[in-house]
Amino acid sequence: MKFDETVYEVKTLEMDGKTVTYREFRHISYVSNPVDEIQKLSVYVPEGYYHGETINGYRSDSAPVFLPNSVGGYMPGPEQEPGKDFIGRTNSLFYALRQGYVVVSPGVRGRGCKNPEGKFTGIAPADIVDLKAAVRWIRNNPNVPGDHEKIISNGTSAGGAMSALQGCTGNHPDYEPYLKEIGACEGRDDVFMSSCYCPITNLDHADMAYEWEFNGLNHFKMGMDPAHMREGDLTEEQESLSSQLKDMFPAYVMSLSLPGIGSMDAFLEVVKKHVIESAETELSKGTDLEADPAVTAWLSFENHKPVSVDWKKYVAYRTRMKPVPAFDAVEMNTPENELFGTADIQFRHFTDFSYDNDPEKGEKAEDIQIRLMNPMYYIDDEKAVKAKHIRIRHGAVDRDTSLAISNLLYLKLKNAGVDVNIAHPWGIPHAGDYDLPELFAWIDSFCR
Q1: What's the whole-number mean pLDDT along residues 366-381?
Q2: One domain for residues 188 and 211
Q3: Same domain? 433 vs 291
Q4: In a domain, 360, yes or no
Q5: CA angle at residue 361 from 359 to 363, to 5 degrees?
Q6: Could you tell me if 196 and 210 lie in one domain?
Q7: Which pTM does this prediction carry?
Q8: 166 and 244, same domain (yes or no)
């Protein structure tokens, strides 16, 4: 559990015409009672700090600590190394080192993890608990370089949801029993900033949000690889479920009592505003959006400026990805159903709606397990320390979850006084780390 600064390897890596030399400290246990081999982390430090250098205005004791997670689909997220990501792009770890940050890359449990006895060990809230334990480990090892008050979480998809949880649930006692169980260090697990790419979050309300957006589109298409593509038309029963879920969503939105959101029309205007801002940003890059009839079918212009969105046509332009329900399937066969399992039961429901509509009457997760995975429950909780700054990016053509989910997170955080930055980048599907220069400029603006 102690950081041994004498055990390391110096590496030099060149990517995109840039060279970084760093010290690599690998596979360090961050809990005293691990339940899976994945519960280790790696630390990467710019070599210049060991020679008294200043990098990007930072010193060894003032550099931000960048904490990326590799969680996707709520599966296990292994440690990462500086280099290429899974689609061949230069990854965030390399960028962070180049910016002069210290990088801590934890491996965390996720759905599907099993112990030798065959028990499931990666069920909720394992992934967020492991990330909290990693933050505590950093603060309990003062010889880890960097400013431990400037920890920045980053993740994409389910990993984006984890980053949102890190930014909204700092030090909350709800997680303490789980942290003690794995032998996490004592102390704080709050973070200074959170970067959340397309967060698949607010899972217990995500089905109704999805149908509020995609109801009426009855053809779905999941996946890009033909060998693993799932495509089809909704059944009559699914169309009925879609309409029921759509009708349930307004009551949830109104229950949040968000200032200025007294109706669903008011909420929709917030979402549309962010879509228009996305188009404005793309226009500023020189893209002629008015030349694309697929865009002008739903986006109206005046004097070459985007002014309004036809919501139904915009949603049709994006197309439906998932059948109904999108997350808590009646058949209990989604990644999220597995997330809410138990040590012995692989899949469970996490909404009353799908539980009530399941003819097989599968089990439903306990309320506390569901709560622990949803940052929305903690934003107004005074016992939860929130990040000072949170950045949300949800691509303008991302269909993995509703745009409503990211916008509700944004509005809830804004109402709580958090500095929150949201955008729907033009033409971006479900993805992350696609704007790393902008991400690190955002971090630098608060850390330097």
Answers
A1: 98
A2: no
A3: no
A4: no
A5: 150
A6: no
A7: 0.97
A8: no
Residue 437 in tokens: 């220069």
- Tokens read off for 394: 């949800």
Q: Which of 304, 334, 364 is the last residue of a domain?
A: 334
Exposure string for 319-337, b = 16+ CB within 10 A, e = fewer: ebbbbbbbbbbbebebbbb
Question: Looking at the structure, do residues 180 and 79 belong to the same domain, yes or no?
Answer: yes
Contact between 362 and 243 (Cβ < 8 Å):
no
Domain span at 310: 204-334
Render pLDDT for 235-291 as a digit per residue (tens, 0 to 9): 999 999 999 999 999 999 999 999 999 999 999 999 999 999 999 999 999 999 999
| Whether residues 299 and 389 fall in one domain | no
Query: What end-to-end distance do the CA atoms of the chain give, in Å?
Result: 30
Pair (37, 49) in one structural domain: yes
Q: From CA 42, how far away is CA 79, in angstroms rounded? A: 7
Query: What SS3 string covers 60-78?
Result: CCCCCEEEECCCCCCCCEC
Counting beta carbons within 10 angstroms of the beta carbon of residue 436, is it exposed (0 to 12), middle (13 to 18) or buried (19 or more)?
A: buried
For residue 139, what are the CA distances in angstroms to 2, 93, 136, 153? 11, 20, 5, 15
Quick one: which of 135, 152, 139 has its CA closest to 189?
135
Q: What is the pLDDT of residue 224?
A: 67
Contact 194, 167 (CB under 8 A): yes
Alpha-carbon distances, residue 166 vs 385, 387, 411 (angstroms): 9, 8, 18
